[in-house]
Each structure stands twice: as structure tokens, then as C-alpha cells.
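[SOLVED] Need 3D model of a two-part complex

Original post:
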Amino acid sequence: MKTGSPVLISRADPFPKSLWPRVATVALVVYVIYACAQMEISWERVQTGLANAAHFFARLFPPNFARHELLVRGLLESLQIAVLASTLGILLALPIGLAGARNLMPPWASWPARALIVLARSLHPVIVAILFVKAVGFGALAGVLALTVASVGFIGKLFTEAIEEISSKQVEAVRATGAPFPSVLAFGVMPQVFSRFIGFATYQLDSNLRNSTMVGIVGAGGIGGTLFAAFQRFDYDFVCAILIAIISLIMLGEVLAAGVRAIFIDNATLPELFRRRGLPRRDRLVEDE
Amino acid sequence: MVSITAAETTSRRVWRRFTGAQRTARFMVYLIIVAAIVAAAQTIEIIPEFLADAPEQIGDLLARMWPIDWRAYPTDVHSALSETIHIASLGTLLALMLALPVGLLAAHNLVPFTPLNLLARLILVSSRSVNSLVWALLFVGIFGPGALAGTLAIAFRSIGFVGKLFGEALEEAQPGPIEALAATGAPWRSVLTFGYWPQVKPAFWSIALFRFDINVRESAVLGLVGAGGIGMALDAALNLFQWERVALILVAILVVVIITEIVVTQIRKRML
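Solution:
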């Protein structure tokens, strides 16, 4: 019986699925059904909504730019809020972020700074805006302060991480010459983190611009208030005009931020900036929040 | 007569890191930034009385918030809080399902057909450039107030984020294993599951976790425009000036956000 042993071709799956993904899938399906039931989401509701959608979109178009003065005023205020909040936020975040870096600062300085950064980051800017509206009244000031808090949280965190990742060689070399602490910062630390810092700063300006169009929903100035009022009055064609304006503003902001990054990180000159087709992708942060 | 020696010339040579054109570009940026700050500071409408009044008002606010109204938690806040978490997780799941095909279409090494790539990019960009609060407004307009609008808002805002990062991960996948699979005559589904997926799996789960963390924060706000969750409880408490309850809700949001961040960080550490 030794002759001509047949070549066995196994028909079994060469990549057998383990138990764990199956259990996870079942658990996920159960969770989705449970959550939908809890929130009273059902297929009928989706269908009724979809029937509404055509009507809703019909009312959105054509966009109505008749009240463009209101629109421009709101957009300008959003822009002012974004610029001032980014400036204040960056100015405040630099010392706080530096204080949080554990490789340069003693624990008594880094822990309070890190706690402050976590606190500033944990609440959504719109919620912070509610508190500032109560504190300083309706208007752009509340928006500026709320977005300043958000900027301190975001830039502070990234700046702290950037400083903690630097090479200690240059710092030690500058220290060895007997340089005082400010010189160590200026010549040992800053050159190592400057390009990343430009990345955070442009990103934060971009993010503040997005949020400054939203804080108006809670009365903190900018175009958001106009948007929400128009929405509540069912002025959907004006809502559409505002949305188009906001999206154009945000896209313009993105282009400008990419230009600043090209100049400071890739050492581009002005003619190069206009010549190049796609702006560089490097050192761009993961977008969002 | 003063003769300039070679040593003197070298010592006088000025070292410049950037060319004149580069310095002009940098200077222009600084100029524009300063001009923008000055213009914004001069024209923004700030009422000085409000600013002067601020410390007193903040004191008043804190006094009204204390003591925190813990007893309202089981009756009103708990259900709203769990609704927020459901909105975030269902929204993330839906976004993952919708973003997968768009991300695949956006990767030009996978779909070597530029019009489809551009279409996918357009979907991703429009999803990202609309704020989640605006998505919430639109979905409240379509489906009426409630958690359904919130879930869809979170999902539609996340598509752009997940799809963009997933598409970039796909484009960075190494061609070796894929060519090997294609050479065996494997159908495209097998190439996808055994060539691409193992390479982008860590990136995919990392993106999903990261987005979930963001979505928990965002879903807490959606209620302000009527899209369900704890934001609606917050809005109600604010409108009724129940500051002790506002304080409770803020603490609840803070705790959930911090717990989510810790859990997400831990899962990521274990998994990657």
C-alpha cells in the first residue's frame, strides 16, 4: 500500500477565522440593536425623514444672498474672533506648554501646567463659550475667550510633547558654555521645535476659524448666531447662503495655512508659492476637533 | 592704506541661512499676521463695561453653581448621558461603514481611475469642511429633533476624517504582497482581504479609536441644536437658569470625556 500515495489537497479554509472576531461581531450587532431601541431610532423614522429631505433641500435652494450685509458682518466678526483667539491662545500656550515639559522643568511646575492643559482640552469650545457668555455677556468677547481656552489646551499639549521629544545634546552644549536659562531656550530648544510649532499654530488658526463660525449658536459672536437664527425662522435659503459663505471662508483659511507652512517649513519663496501646484503634505497634523 | 587680509574677509563674511527671497516671504507673512491682529483688535466690538464686570460675574456664576445638584443625576442626566455615548458609538460605526468604500475609491493605487479618485476626494472634503453642528442642523431639519439627527451628524462629519486617513494608509501599503497575490491569479476580493487589509488594519483601528474619542466630545454639544444627547439637558438647564444642574452636567461630560480618553489610550497601547 506504499505506492502512489495521493497528493492530498485540503479543501479547508487556509485562513480559519478565530472565535474572537465572531464574538465581537455578535456583540456589536446586539449593541447596535439595543442602542437603536434606546434612542427610538427605527426604519420608519428614517423613511419619514427621507420623504422630508426632498422638501427640505428644495427649500434650501436657490441660496438667498439678499441680506449679504448681515452675512459679511457675521463673517468678519468670526474672522476677528479667530485671529484674536489664536494670538492670545498662542501667547498663553507658549509659557504653559514650556512649563509642562518634564525634561526641562521640575515636577512642581510641570504638573500644574499639565493639569491646566487637560482641563482646557476636555470641554468642547462651544460649551466653554456658554460659560463665557454668562461671565462677560453676549458678543464676540465671549467667543474670543472660549477659543483662547481651546487654543491653550491644544497648542499647550502639542508644544509640551514637542519639547519633550527634543534632543538633549544641543541643550547640554549650550548649557556647558555657561549660558543662562533664556539663552538655553532661545538657542538650544526653540530651533528644534520651531517648525513643528508653525505646524500647530497654522492648524490652530484653521481650527479656530471653523469653531468661530459655530460659537455664535450660544451667543458668543460671529456668523453662527445669524445661522442659528435663520434656521429657527425656517429661512432655509438664507441658511444655504450662510453655509456656502462659511465653507468658502474655511477653505480659504486652509489655503492660507498651507501657504504659511510652505514658507516656514519648506522655505518656499513667494513666486514658488504661486508656481507650485499641490502644496506639500508633510508636517500636516491630523485634522480635527 | 588699509589692506584687507584674508582672515579679515572671512571674519566679516555674513552667514545667512535664507536667501533674500525666502526672507521676503517670511517677512510678508509676519506683516500680514501683525496687520490682521491690529485690524481685528481695533474693529472687534467689545463692550468695556462687560469686560470690567467679568470677575464679579464669574464669581456669581461659581456661587450659583455650588452646591452641585447631584440628586438630579439618576432622574434626568443619566439617560441623556448614555444617549450621548450611544450617539458617539453608533455614529462612529456608521461612519466606519460609509467611509470604507469612499476611502478605497480615494486610494489611487487601488482604483487607478482619476475621476473616481477625485469624486471620492470631493466627498471627503465636503464631509470635513462642514462642522458637526451644521450637519446636526441639517439633519434636525430633515428628521426632526432627536438622537437620530445627532447620530447621522456624527457619522457624516466623521466620514471625511476616517476616509481621508484610511485612503492615505491604503496608498502607503507596500506593493510586494499585493503583486504576489495578483500573480497567483487571486480575485480582487482576495487581494483586498489578504493583501491590503493586513497592512492597513492597525491604521484602521487606530483611526477608528481616535475618531471615537473626538466623537464623544462632539456629541455632547449636538443637543444645543436639538440633536439629542446630554446637550439637550444642558440647554434645558441653561434656559431655566438651573446653574446647580448645569454644573452637574458639566462634571458628567468632563468625567465621560476623561474616561473615554483613558480607555482609548489603553486599548491603543494593548492593540498596537
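Edit: DSSP finds eleven helices and no strands in chain B.
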